[in-house]
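[job 4471] stage=fold_predict status=RUNNING
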Amino acid sequence: MNDRACLIIGAGDDTGAAIARAFARDGLIACVVRRPRHAEALEQLARSIRDDGLKAVALPADARDEEAMTALFDRIEAEIAPIDVVVFNIGANVRFDIAETTAQVYRKVWEMAAFAGFLAGREAAKRMTPRGRGTIIFTGATASLRGAAGYSAFAGAKHALRALAQSMARELGPKNIHVAHVIVDGAIDTAFIRGLMPDIDAMRAEDAILSPDAIAGNYVFLHHQPRSAWTHELDLRPWKEKW
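[job 4471] inference complete, writing structure tokens
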């Protein structure tokens, strides 16, 4: 009867998984979401959390699909637990020179990193506002603040997500719903990055690369902040990262 849920949209193998585990350790039911084609990996993540004696449920869904998102939130609220935390963690980081960026690429990146964030934020607000509590966290990137060469689609989507978070914070903060935007500025110690950086072991040894677990710890910190001193935007980077 006292259970609460944390919905992690974009629960990948590294950062998203770490966020799910962190909130599960904090006592919430981790409801992890990825696209249906990742259903097996998603179930493995949920099982690994349950194997640690914690609570987790795998819920494959396409975050760009409005009907699927509405059904997802309804199912969690009806069958699992009230949603106390929503983390939108979809990345969609791609690089194309502007002349090579097709309308399809731009639209898909926007759908994944911006439109899906709107759907998640809207559905979270619908459930949290009547209860007068909740935390909504959006994962941003360096591209949320500045667009690098070759990242027009990614930067456009991440700028849009940041604007969404700002608007929602101003609207929902007075209703006791904490909306935060986290700028992850730097490379994260993920399987993808490990395949690109031959010196990653040395970087990890001197804390020169972002740790998924450390990122996750900051998300839990945001959820527990006293409302007299809420953070809206938090930027995270290794101590050696260039600004």
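[job 4471] summary: The mean pLDDT is 96.
[job 4471] exit 0
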